[in-house]
Amino acid sequence: MRSDRAVALRVCAGLLAAAVVSGPRLAPASNDELTPIRADVAAGLPAEALDPFFAQPQLTFRGVPARGPLVYRERVNGVVLIASTKTIGSGVVVSTNGDIVTNEHVVREAYRARGDDWIAVWFKPPNGARPAKDQFLLGKVVQRDARRDLAHVRLVQAMPATASVIPLASVMPDVGQDVFTIGHPKTFLWSFSQGVVSQIRPDYQWRYPDGVAHSATAIQTQAAIDAGSSGAPLLDDKVAVVGIVVVSAAETQGVYFAVSVQHVRELLPR
Predict the structure, then answer these.
(1) Whole-number pLDDT of residue 30
(2) Cα separation of 182 and 81, whole Å?
(3) In principle, which of 22, 152, 209, 219 could form an S-S bond with 143, CB 3.0–4.6 Å?
(4) HEC readout, the chain
């Protein structure tokens, strides 16, 4: 039954994503064209900050309720690790075309080449293997919304066969509803967290240390979120994306926020 359900969810995910994201596929680039860009992107990555992501042992589940492992198995392959020249974060695959949503501040310092902004993207390897630092795919930043702290990235190379698409939710979650997230907090890759929706904030405003002002309809939650999980998906009890993780409330421990899926839909082409 779990296998049948997982297959059905993956089929639905593809259909929903195709309905939401109808932008054209990027023309495939040859290896000869991408090789120099890839080398330059690799040279520009923040090596010292990235190294711990590929050295730390993976986490295992301990004391997670039964629903958690199912959510994790169904959605972990739709969550990616992203690095620009200065920032490392998470992202979520939202279409079979290789469309990824993350935070704008994660890709702000993308590598600039040939008139485009490039980032490195890692998918979770199969069978519990550790990702290799030099085995990333190239992604191109195609749209930004600095006010909402959202960015749309599209892969220019084929996704791995293990990759999956996570659909966007059609409605906002209710206060008190269970939510889940998968990200890379403090270098611990593809880590799972869960909590509940504490409140919906229609005009939440925040600033990062760079002083840039942001505002959005935000989902407040106490699902634990730390540095490295910026850009991760917040998932509802139907395992669809209801928000994109952005920040914790600096003045209040244990309070976290995600930008509502309505702004994600505004960001993506129709």
Answers:
(1) 75
(2) 11
(3) 152
(4) CHHHHHHHHHHHHHHHHHHHCCCCCCCCCCHHHHHHHHHHHHHHCCHHHHHHHHCCCCCCCCCCCCHHHHHHHHHHHHEEEEECCCCEEEEEECCCCCEEEECHHHHCCCEEECCEEEEEEECCCHHHCCCCCCCCEEEEEEEEECCCCEEEEEECCCCCCCCCCCCECCCCCCCCCEEEEEECHHHCCCEEEEEEEEEEEEEEEEECCCCCEEEEEEEEECCCCCCCCCCCEEECCCCCEEEEEEEECCCCCCCEEEEEHHHHHHHCCC
186 within 8 A of 121, measured Cβ to Cβ? no
| Residues lower than pLDDT 70 in the chain | 1-28, 56-66, 248-251
Q: Which CATH entry fits the domain spanning 2-155: 2.40.10.10, 3.20.20.80, 1.20.140.10, 2.30.30.280?
A: 2.40.10.10
CATH of 178-267, one of 3.40.50.300, 1.10.1740.10, 3.30.70.1350, 2.40.10.10: 2.40.10.10
CA proximity to 186, closest of 230, 149, 153: 230
Rounded to the nearest 5 degrees, what angle is found at the Cα of 87, between the Cα atoms of 103 and 204?
35
Please tell me whether the overall predicted TM-score, pTM, comes out greater than 0.85 for this model.
Answer: no
pLDDT at 4: 54
Question: CB-based contacts of 71: which residues, under 8 Å, 6+ apart?
Answer: 180, 192, 194, 235, 239
CA distances from 3 to 7, 10, 72, 149, 166 (A): 6, 11, 14, 36, 17
